[in-house]
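Format notes (please read before filing issues)

Several people have asked whether sequences and structure tokens are stored in separate files. They are not. Every record keeps both together, in the order shown below: the sequence lines, then the token lines. Line labels are part of the format and must not be stripped during preprocessing.
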Amino acid sequence: MRLSNYYMPTLRDDPQDAETQSHKLLVRGAFIRKTSSGVYSYLPLGMRVINKIENIVRKSMEKYDSIEVSTSVLQSKDIWEKSGRWQNFGPEMFKIKDRHDREYCLGPTAEEQFTSLIKDELNSYKQLPLNLYQIVSKFRDEKRPRFGINRSRDFIMKDAYSFDVDMEGLEKSYQKMWDAYVEVFDALGLDYKIVEGDSGAMGGNTSHEFMALAETGEGEIFYTENSDYAATDESAKFFLDIDENEEEKEIELVQTKDTKTIEEVSNFLKIDQNKCAKAVDLLVQGKPVLVFVPGDRELNMAKLISYLQVPEHEIEMMDDETIRKITGAEPGFTGPKDLKEDIRVIVDKSITRYKNLVIGANKTDHHFINANFKRDFDGEIADDLLTAKEGDLSLDGKEELKIARGIEVGNIFQLGTKYSESLEAYFLDENGKQKTIYNGILWNWNYKIYFSYN
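Then the structure lines:
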């Protein structure tokens, strides 16, 4: 085709809503056009890039024994109810009804869809392992679409799903897809790190993310320079050096007038912030929950969600009126001792290791000093609810953690039997006994993001 006949409407000026350089160049260079908030069309040049990326992805997937299929983006409510995610997935799911009042969603992912696809077909161990993948559009009602196609409401996803006879087989499939993604990202020339991830709404116990390093990345990763450790900010672990041999003192109620924040309390009592227990007052599925972390740390919501096993949209901050009702005090004086009602209290494990803490007294303008876990207050112990900070020590205490920004370009999960059990995907083993299929989800999250990589 002659260039004069090619559709390539370049622009001289930057689009007003573009926040990043990559977004500006994609619009000006005639790769994409915005049709509405978080929704984009791809022009001929954009499609040429997408086709080249798809060819690279297909080549690697087929090399590692994954077979391409295509499922509908229109998914039945029934299968999502069986997995328990129809309500739990949250407001990001687009839900619609047909003329017969049957409910569907526009697929945000496809664990249920693929498990339903194979559950009546795979009935013998001889048919396993199996790995299927597709390259289709996904839809998520992002609260805040931004950075152009980096966070959009519809996007092309390459998602693969493995089916195995046992956990050992799942781990082999997991490693195959790990190798396939390394091959893809190396071929694309991305500067990336493989990090420990958070399983989130997908479930499972093991997850890794492939993060392309970029200043425009929305995610943070923590890593050490002289080891292989790397993790997302949602899952990063670190070492806390706490003196657990300090002698316990007698608890004492003290007046702390007009000192609501950790900084104010710390300065007033001349006690380090890490020795002040910070209360995070929450409503979880409508019920009050108090979470306590050291005053110099921030609560990691992803870790809390994993601990509570509830969707993020069912957790909200408690309003002042509710705080007054359940504690009998003004906000800022919440503590785990002498609560007015029987309320769920969760403490980060580090709280149990500190001696002689400052805690809210559930009495306006008052705190307790020299409070110690078990002796003076109690609660559920969560192993790790803390957000890492740059400069924290690695778990072995040998190196400081460093931070880099990145864009998630791939993610793999070991789901185990989460979806096969709920959707009744079984097979017969060599002894004729019914067993549950083991699942893995192995996908490139919105590989259009490659456009946005700076």
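For reference, the curators noted about this record: Residues 167-187 form the longest helix (21 residues). Residues 74 and 179 are 31 Å apart (CA to CA).
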